[in-house]
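Hi Y.,

Following your request, here is the sequence exactly as I used it, all 89 residues.
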Amino acid sequence: TELAEEYKVSEMPTGWIACSERLPSKEEYLKDDGRFIVTDGNRCYQSVFDIYSQVFRTSVFGAFGSYRYEKDKCVLAWQHLPAPYAEGE
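Below is the corresponding structure, written out as tokens. Let me know if you'd prefer a different format.
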């Protein structure tokens, strides 16, 4: 979308990692079963990272749809899932 194109990843809040800078490592992938918070410049949502598609240098964020993995080509940046809620925080 037009807004996403104007949105500069370098101006994003701390914690975001631009996909153009780097993708999650194997260790980061294993930490939360491949789940990350991603943004397309308009919205933030959870997505699944496919570590195995890195070998083929393709779009690697997506979701499992009806019987198959659907790639999300709109992801500009990603970050780790937040820490789980702990009572008393």
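The first helix runs from residue 2 to 6.

Thanks again,
Q.
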